[in-house]
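Lecture 7 notes. Example A: sequence first, then its structure tokens.
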Amino acid sequence: MFVSYLLLTLFHTETAMLARPGGESIGCDDFLGSDKVVDKCGVCGGDNTGCQVVSGVFKHALTSLGYHRVVEIPQGATKINITEMHKSNNYLALRSRSGRSIINGNWAIDRPGKYEGGGTMFTYKRPNEISSTAGESFLAEGPTNEILDVYMIHQQPNPGVHYEYVIMGNNAISPQVPPHRRPGESFNGQLETEDRSLEGREEREKNQEKEDSPGQAPEVLTPESTHAQTFPVRHPDRFPSHRPDNLVPPAPQPPRRSRDHNWKQLGTTECSTTCGKGSQYPIFRCVNRNTHEEVPESYCDSSMKPTPEEEPCNLFPCPAFWDIGEWSECSKTCGLGMQHRQVLCRQVYANRSLTVQPYRCQHLEKPETTSTCQLKICSEWQIRTDWTSCSVPCGVGQRTRDVKCVSNIGDIVDDQECNMKLRPNDIENCDMGPCAKSWFLTEWSERCSAECGAGVRTRSVVCMTNHVSSLPLEGCGNNRPAETTPCDNGPCTGKVEWFAGSWSQCSVECGSGTQQREVICVRKNADTFEVVDPYECSFLERPPSQQACHLKPCGAKWFSTEWSMCSKSCQGGFRVREVRCLSDDMTPGSLCDPQLKPEERESCNPQDCVPEVDENCKDKYYNCNVVVQARLCVYNYYKTACCASCTRVANKHTGFLGSR
């Protein structure tokens, strides 16, 4: 009925669009010029009152996992639409009131596709695209020939299920809920179904065969004995295969009641399937009761011819096979990703494809469920320049290089399109070696090493790395300042003898050092001493000329560098030096007397500057002050047109009013 209605609707829709002479068209009643159309109830010229649209949303909050009833679809429903309102990890399931699972029963998830049930064909959709937010759905045109129940396999919060169907008639229809169950109530965590396993089916078929004894073809008795004859019961849940053409009842003929002929089964039709439970029908022929020879059917009473009943055949299960689903979208939009597909072991039985345990497919190699995929080559990092020079001439600084994210066609794109974890460094530290060095000196010692005659004064000299000073020093080099300087406290006087001078100051002001003294052989005259050959005093014990000394434990003292150049050549500048407190082991210390710390900065070149007049550098316009205020002196044109003004500003910024 529904197919006829659909074809009729399509026919009228197409023909109504065809132009007719005079602009007239054909209505759904096949009359030229009629404006009648088919309403939503399938009635030509109807006003949509011949049917009732039933719709709603199942929003119950579910707590337990398992199957929960959503809505009942009554018998005769059409335009069925059951749709999950948003993608979730839940599944929709469909079951007939007779207990037959149609979609997603027994915790087995079926592939999207078309499934027959309730006298109509349901289209099961489950979008598997990663970007899709659409939920699952059941769609069917109907009409249904029995009551169907829709369930949800609850695994996460219910996003809502929208249902809608059409019922013919004017009476209001509401979704039916069995009195013993409420919407959303679970059936012990699973969908209650009859035993539909292959083993259960085979066992039931064997029992049925034992009861019916189909292996022996019963002879059909004459009309007088038909009261004792029984026929197999027709099972309503079995789908009949095609009946043999030769079993169509013949045209009525005058009865020829004869006890010599009767109807007898002479074999069966070919089984509708080669495995997995098919169907066949007995073939009845009119035969002679005594000879069992086939005679024309007119010899038997046609009203007594048995009606062929469907019989099961080839009950053994078909070989299991791997049912392969569609690949999902690639997990990555570029580069190497993964995609998945569902692979289920299935067997066909009773015209239904059932999901079975994987071991039944162990004779077949299982197809891969995951695979690598690559939609396109990802963008990649490219190093566009070499490293720059180090940011400092000495010590530790930084250097940089240009790193860009480049697409597979060579365009520079946003960094986010490349893998940030693989980004090459575009900045790193660089070590240019020790910085400039300077000579650090102490003051000269106050005492001469000899009390009379020639002696020396000393000071400490050390070359140290200058890590913090900004002075333009280039290293200590070979021009080491002298550590000693001559001194003379006047001539010595005495008599002929070993004459030992005074000990010099200790070679160090702290810690262990040495002292020196002059030892000579002299001959003392009345008022003078005459130095003679040391041989003359050889009979005398010669005093030592050197000894160890230790004045005091070393402490910290101030060291300083030479003064730098003056910062300005005129009008007052300054120069600097670095001062450090060093311990006796020449390591930085903090025990120096702050009151004795040498100055680190002093003024220099206080004289006035004499500006030089450049005849070639003049302002060519009266409003050059505007150029300066607008900071346009960086452009060559304005720098030339307002040379004097731009030069003054440049000298002011650098601290010079003229060059020396």
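Example B, a different protein, same format:
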Amino acid sequence: MEPEEASAQEDGGSRLMLRVERPVYDEEFLGTQLLHRKQSSTSFRQKLSDKFRCSSERAKAAALSFLPILTWLPSYPVKQYLMSDVISGLSTGVVQLPQGLAYALLAAVPPVYGLYSSFYPVLLYTFFGTSRHVSIGTFAVVSLMIGGAVVREVPDNMVIGPTNVTNSSLADKDLSPIDARKVQVAVVLTTMVGIIQFVFGLLRFGFVAIYLTEPLVRGFTTAAAVHVVISQLKYLLGVKTARFSGPLSAVYSVKEVFSKIKQTNIPSFLLGLTCTVFLYGIKVLNERFKKNLPVPIPGEIIVVIVSTGVSYGIPLEKHNVSIVGYIPSGLRAPAVPDFSLALNLIPDAFAVAIVGFSMSISLSKTFALKHGYSVDGNQELIALGLCNFLSSFFHTFAITCSMSRSLVQESTGGKTQIAGLLASLMVLLVVLVIGFVFQPLPQTALAAIIIVNLVGMFKQFRDIPPLWRTSKIELAIWLVSFVASVLLGLDYGLLAAIAFAIITVIYRTQSPKSSILGHVTDTGLYYDVNTYEEASEYEGIKIFHSNSSIYFANSDRYVNKLKEKTGVNPKELQAAQEAKRKRKKKDNKEQNSSIKICAEHKDATEEVVPQSQEMQEVRNGELEDKHSEPTSEAAAFLEPLSSVHSIILDWTAVNFIDSVGAKAIKQVIKEYASVDVRVVIAGCNRTVLDELNTLQFFSEELSTNMVFPSVHDAVLRCQCSSSRPPGASSEA
């Protein structure tokens, strides 16, 4: 073997030069002489023992991982961080209070349960969460998904008897039986969401969020915003309508609202419209002057205070304007959820768990990237699971992080989750002391708060033009996610969107881009000959590239594209060979027949004379023709059927191959061999090579010397083999 030399030096002081001189390698040589696998000295039993061995270091690492607060609280820089966290916490709490009241309407439970959901989970996340900037609590999309399940299980016209409310702590005198039943459903659904998220976190299933691609999530949340706005129209207009769930619920809700539009409560509509315009104006001002404002203008709390004051001064309830109503002071005693309601809620629990985690981890990673720290997806699942599970015993509904509150918490200088803790303490103060103040708060003001906070989601429609220009498949995912979620509901819409996203992945692997590669002179580089002028093919060699793995779903297409792109179809060549052989045989038969007729004609017209040397030569000529027939036929078979003598399969893009794909490749290699075209494989990575060995792809006929580490190795071997005379050794 010649020594291998490599050098890199400056050429003209501007470009590095690479020179490598080595033999042409194939996998047979690499696997037997050049590469030797490391022998593992650790047995499976030892690995298992090491995995579960306990030590003080591991115990400490586990404790710090499970309670991230222990990693930063002991070294918390009070002087640098405390004031920023206090200002951020107060600003976030001012926003969290009205949103908690408002999003409870989306969850179809009394407003006070929104306050509970804005306190307990935030308190728990401070200890278990890894993000420093997200604001945990109620969120419009998750609240709406909870409300959809609640309304489906407990419709407004359902008759509830005392025996139906099994939990005595929920059968409060302050709640009607139907409201108590709704709270039960929301609570048990939240418990199931928490269990799912916690178990997923323990099983290290943080990767599940990758199946919710950004176009899918943005299309889904935009559809959720449409559902939220539709659900708030009745509060904005002050009309009484039924609440629908399931497929086409958005259509039915719009139809119901417009059928009663003549019954619009004018005071409610005017107050709601005024609040909407005011909040939108405040939002625009905060956005435009955010660099000049020390803290954002708290538009939501201003609306809550002013509209509550107006309701106190002008008894709006007498004008049939719906108000929040009784808000009990203090916290409720913990209670075990009613798990008899859980069976019908399993699909909803999985949907809420995945959507909630997806929203949280995407926002957490955004802030972590901006501020230079990391978040642990699995710990985030555990944190959200504990927040939902433990809080559900205190009568909360499912939570996740809120985009609008998180932006407030981050933009006002929040450094750690101390800011979130202070925001939750503000909510606790309201629940314990001054909750009764907000009893006359008009629901139309809460509807205005909800609608204006969705402006950011509606801006996601701006995604469509860029996606049209950059990726039509991602645009299709966005549109399918949006349309399916609007028409089928958020639960079935999410499933349909995920299924469609997976189908697009299958489509991409089933319909990969394939090409014929050519070499760029004096570089050893190979590119598509149809794309680059500098790329040219070697005579008699076709290099086929397909940017996909080979498995059951695309193996047939891979083979068909190979035959189409190379222009070499073994069956067509064999058919042409057979037709040529038959034509040659027919021509020889006709020639022999004409010679025989001529000989008989001579015998009948000429005298019988001794056989002359001339006649003998003629007969010898006939004999020679007869003997030459098989020789000509053999020559016809020996003629090359195609100008292509070698095909190289470039597998640099192949990540895996299954048994169906391996059989298809093995079969096509044999087909090409039958027409004297050699097929070799180049650029096969070690993982795929191990899979081929496992699938028993190699045999005496197909050995590893047909596999090369690079396309250039394969080209040189094919050129060398084709230049040798017949019968020469095939060894390099």
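Note on Example B: The longest strand covers residues 5-11. The CA atoms of residues 359 and 401 lie 7 Å apart.
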